[in-house]
């Protein structure tokens, strides 16, 4: 607690109890005769200061939380309450001020808020992953139980590889090249040429794109260019528009004459579900005498692009 003299210039402190001295780290001779503003510092809110000044000018009670500083420079959150003390004639004599250290309370509240945000984020990510797994289970070919189980297993493993990569990077953005290499290398370690700028995919986009890349690589290995000894992949990417998404070009070369399939395969269905349904993008396929060309466009915000070295 402190008492300031409202009748003297700059309202100096005329009384400070031991608790105030203990809280701030000052000795009594360093406090008495000074205005309380010495507790303010670089991060003290000017709005809180203005609220205090207005209350003093109006000679009314003021309650405000303000960031103050101890003698050693340490910050503390101060719940300050000021009350005017008037004489019998109604004139202002003193201001009584009480301070409560709210630092620990603020820390606990911030921790609770952080934990809540973390739980909400985990819940959101879990729902995204489960939605993708649900698509895998529903869209995989269930005609043969053994093949069905294997297809789901490999697709979930592809999803897990992307999940592990995100976990290693603390769920920040992942480069397109890194994600392409992660999913394509198991099928075309030496038969894929990659090119494109350093584009970062935001975390929510990574897992669906990873599954799409897995499906395309599996299809190329089973039915496309990678079946032929001379077959190879050319995978390139570029920004769709500055900061608005990704354009990817998947080209299978050296597969020989490729006919457009008469019906959609399950891999095609999954690619469509991930790109068009979940990511609201677009997929276009072109068949030629030399192979298959797939052009993918994915809209999203928060992309970042840099030059590769």
Automatic annotation (TrEMBL):
Domain (PAS) ranges: 1-35
SMART domains tied to this protein: HWE_HK (SM00911), PAC (SM00086)
Keyword Electron transport: no
Enzyme Commission designation: 2.7.13.3
Domain PAC residues, every copy: 60-114
Gene3D superfamilies named in the record: Histidine kinase-like ATPase, C-terminal domain, PAS domain
Keyword Oxidoreductase found: no
Keywords: ATP-binding, Chromophore, Flavoprotein, FMN, Kinase, Nucleotide-binding, Phosphoprotein, Photoreceptor protein, Plasmid, Receptor, Repeat, Sensory transduction, Transferase, Virulence
SUPFAM superfamilies reported for this sequence: PYP-like sensor domain (PAS domain)
Catalytic activity: ATP + protein L-histidine = ADP + protein N-phospho-L-histidine
GO molecular function terms attached to this record: protein histidine kinase activity
PANTHER family, A to Z: ETHYLENE RESPONSE SENSOR PROTEIN (PTHR41523:SF8), TWO-COMPONENT SYSTEM SENSOR PROTEIN (PTHR41523)
Protein name: Blue-light-activated histidine kinase
UniProt source species: Rhizobium phaseoli
